[in-house]
Amino acid sequence: MKKPLHLWQVPILPGNVYAINDALSAEGAADDYETCLKHLVNSGVIAKSEASGFPKFDLQLLGMGPDGHVASLFPGHPLCKESKKWVTHILDSPKPPPERITFTFPVINSSANIALVVCGGGKADVVQRALGNSGKNEEPLPCQLVSPEGELKWFLDKSAASKL
Q: pTM to 2 decimals?
């Protein structure tokens, strides 16, 4: 088995990496990162979606949690309905750590393309609900709210796809 690749091993210029400032509170880090993104959009480093006005990433790589969450957007949480902020914070995450920052759905969905990667049999029921014919009358899961301007591709291992 290969060793995992870490970001520091990828030949990306350090000036092209925009890390979250984890020395700040979750709220402060979210505000700081949104300010950074706005600067990058205003200076033309990141494109702006003509359709939404939010930043348009070429590709976002997302995972899905066993409850159907993506990024740090959890089922039934009010942040799933955030429509103005680019980056926000959560203080009551149902999954550790409790304090996180996350892109909002307007930013996620302004992407040109999204790859949603799901691994493990513990997520098979949620994958079935999200992609199958069940749960039509239920509130959509966060993974079902992912709808980029371009293409959405789901990448499932055999275990995650076992109930489709």
A: 0.91
- On the 0-12 / 13-18 / 19+ scale of CB atoms within 10 A, 139 is exposed
Largest CA distance in the chain: 47
Which helix (H) or strand (E) element contains residue 109? helix 105-109
| Other CB atoms within 10 Å distance of the CB of residue 48 | 15
- Mean pLDDT of successive 10-residue stretches along the chain, which has 164 residues: 70 86 96 97 96 96 97 96 97 92 98 97 96 76 97 97 95
| C-alpha to C-alpha distance for 14 and 32, rounded to whole angstroms | 19
Can you give the length of the chain in residues? 164
Place of tokens 């995450």: 93
Q: Beta strand 151-156 with 113-118: parallel, antiparallel or unpaired?
A: parallel
Q: How far is CA 150 from the centre of its chain?
A: 15
Query: Exposed, middle or buried by CB within 10 Å (0-12, 13-18, 19+), for 120?
Result: middle
At 118, give phi and psi (nearest 5°): -135, 125
Q: For residues 84 and 82, what is the distance between their CA atoms, to the nearest angstrom?
A: 6
Residue 79: which of 95, 101, 96, 64 has the closest Cα? 101
